[in-house]
Design goal:
The chain has one domain. It is 86% helix and 0% strand. It is built from six helices and no strands. The chain is elongated and about 80 Å long.
Amino acid sequence: MKNGNIDNIFIYWIYFVSIILISIYILESFDFISGLFREDISYISSIIVSIFTFYLFRGGYHLYKLRYAINSLIQENCSSNNNIFIEILDEYRSSLSNTSNNKSFQEQLKSRLYEIVDNGFFVADVLLKLGIVGTVIGFIIMLSSLSTIDEMNLSKMNNLLLSMSSGMKVALYTTLSGLICSILLTIQNNYFENKINNFISKILSSDDNEKKD
């Protein structure tokens, strides 16, 4: 893997976040983003966006550390520096020096690395389910307003429509925010998984080269 490709691991994530921020700016110019938080009386959209933002930048942090680990692996100059990937690599190499069961430790290596990716996919699934919960709450708000109508008149009909509109907004906004955030986080996790696979391949190929030497 060339140094340019290693640097691109984190740069592509920067591009990804930049596109998201530009999209948010464009949507906010139409008062969509602020309207989403304002109209969602369940606050589920706010929770979804908060979780998404945290794991978006958490993924960027891991990609930055992964980039550093791959670069250190190529240069054969590994230092921990609070880097989970280099710590896993050091544990793997230390284990190889103490046992001949290489295949077992290779599986442990993959398990440790994929655990980080699996957590990201789990959160993406949770965001989608939170959107569905918001949809249910929105319909409950909308339908509960019907129980307050005992006789039909113009004044009560107007209040009924306002209440139903509020419930529908909750349902649609939470569904939309959960769906979009889940899709974006899944895209990031797929990219991260691909780079994890490259890292594993690099470690195993490096290990094979050491055996030949």
